[in-house]
Amino acid sequence: MTVMTDRPHMLTEDFEAVARIAAREVEGLRLEFIDGVIRSKAVPDGDHGRIIVWLSRICMQHHPGLWLHAGQGVKVEQYREGRAIPDGVLAHEDAFVGQGDWVDPAPILMAVEVTSWDSDTVRRDHVEKPRAYAETGIPVYLLIDRAKCEVSVYSQPNGQRYESIHIVPYGTDIALPDPVGITLQTEVLKDWVR
Fold it and tell me: Which of 89, 109, 142, 152 is the most buried (most CB within 10 A)?
């Protein structure tokens, strides 16, 4: 049997229909479509949600007109054929008004992922998503890795990958470069690890 690796599992429009039905029929099921492959996204636990609230508060304090939109579906990859659900995207408060389930990524200043405890989180959050967000041109990708107790900041997308990656352990301050322009004090993240 031959396995086709040069084509997606399905057309993007078909994926959107399947994702809409799955979300309606199965509580908490969220599907993503990256590199032509369908993946399920884990339902966030309490610590995961607390990290997003913490980050939201910091972003709003520094940039009152910007919001960290949680769980917003985004069109990703070079030709916008992929579909990702970042844990948060930093954009103007009205950036996605009037758009559907999957929004145009142009207004996004930063995509955020907080690792989950599912088996494919390393591949998804450390490999697939940084590539998809860089291809999309999202200026900053923030990854909070709860298993490694590290914070990674990816920046300077070149259309294929991020040229700059800065990784620090929890407890170390880390700068989110422009257009975000915030320094995170990560000591508190130690409180939200299993």
Answer: 89
